[in-house]
Amino acid sequence: MHDLNDVQFFVAVVESQGFSAAARNLNLPKSSVSRRVASLETRLGVRLIERSPRSLRLTEVGVSFYERCRAILADLDAAEREVAVQRGEPVGLVRLSCPTGLAQFVLAKILPGFLLRYPKVRLQVLATNRSIDLVEDNVDIAIRARVRSADEAIMMRMLYKGELILVVSPAFAAAHRNALRIDTLSSFPFLSFLENLRRSTWTFSGPNAASTTVAFDPVLRSGDFNILLKAAIAGVGMALLPAEVAQDDILAKRLIRVLPDWHSEEVTVHLVFPTNRGIVPAVRVLIDYLAEHFKFPSEQQSQKDNAGKTRSEKPRRVPATAT
Asked: Are residues 277 and 151 in the same domain?
């Protein structure tokens, strides 16, 4: 069986560009390194390195042998790192990005529990609606909400899937009761949670497989759900929001759902991270924790309420006003 140390010494000599430099890097006598490389050449029966008093160069065989040895050692190093990852304790800094609205409505509720469970993990949350590049922005995990998934060379894990609903204040609904129709939506002041100016249309599906695309020119854009809710309650305009975000205000009769027979495109929220191999323990446990606990507050309360009901009782639903 070949001695892998001889291969490591040979690679070190090549990458250090000399026996003396390799010996210093390996913290070994130069004679030991030279003897091990010579032993490797003897066993192979070929000259790998041409030596001179002032320089060395690889032979043709040495070049091809070095490339293969470097690949083998890289695979071995990766295997050792993967074992270390699986055995390691969650510790260190994790950088997580999340849209502003989701950070306020969801992360603020669930992240304290994560930090209490893993006290050696430090967490940096980037609450932003700008497009995050995992590599360039040095982000370990990103939470993204999209109507459709982009074709990206990254790993994904689903967190939530739901619909958006149209809501207005009772006063707004009363003032426009006869005019609130799917074909007139674009004429009303619109409140958008999408800060991207390029997105100006939404597609709605309705009764009898009907479908229509509505163009909007928002009077207010904000990734902050609270700002949109306050504006809608004040009667500024119509908002298209996740049902769970608007649910409490609907139940309190501060908002009314309109056109309940029409449904927007489904929105998915998912985690993205660069790779599924070699993820450090702190990142892995955060991914698993978010997958388990990511729920809107009203969704969590609804689950608790439903757990206490008998089978004959029906779960609470968000009321809707047809107009």
From this structure: yes
Q: What is the pLDDT of residue 249?
A: 94
Residue type, 39: S
Closest CA to 225 of 60, 98, 87, 117: 98
3-state secondary structure (DSSP) of residue 214 = strand
Could you tell me the residue range of the domain that residue 146 belongs to? 92-161+268-307
Q: Measured in whole angstroms, how far is the alpha carbon of residue 277 from the centre of its chain?
A: 15
Tens-place pLDDT, residues 207-221: 988 999 999 889 999
List alpha helices for 252-296, DSSP H.
281-293
Tokens of 164: 């958006």
* 244 sits in which H/E element: helix 243-251
Residue type, 159: L
Same domain, 171 and 262: yes
Our count of domains for the chain comes to 3
Q: What is the DSSP letter of 90?
A: P
Query: Phi then psi for 31, rounded to 5 degrees?
Result: -65, -35
CATH of the domain at 255: 3.40.190.290
Report the pLDDT value the prediction gives residue 313, as an integer from 0 to 100.
Answer: 38
- Convert 168-203 to b/e letters by CB count within 10 Å (16 or more is b): bbeebbeebeeebeeeebeebbbbbbbbeeeeeebe
Task: Give the separation between CA 187 and CA 18, rounded to whole angstroms.
Answer: 76
Same domain, 156 and 171: no
What CATH number should be reported for the domain holding residue 151?
3.40.190.10
Does residue 106 lie within any of the structural domains?
A: yes
Looking at the structure, tell me whether residues 32 and 61 fall in a common domain: yes
Tokens 């009314």 belong to residue: 256
φ, ψ dihedrals at 306, nearest 5°: -70, -30
192 part of a folded domain: yes
Shared domain check, 291 and 151: yes
pLDDT in tens, 294-315: 887 554 444 444 444 434 333 3
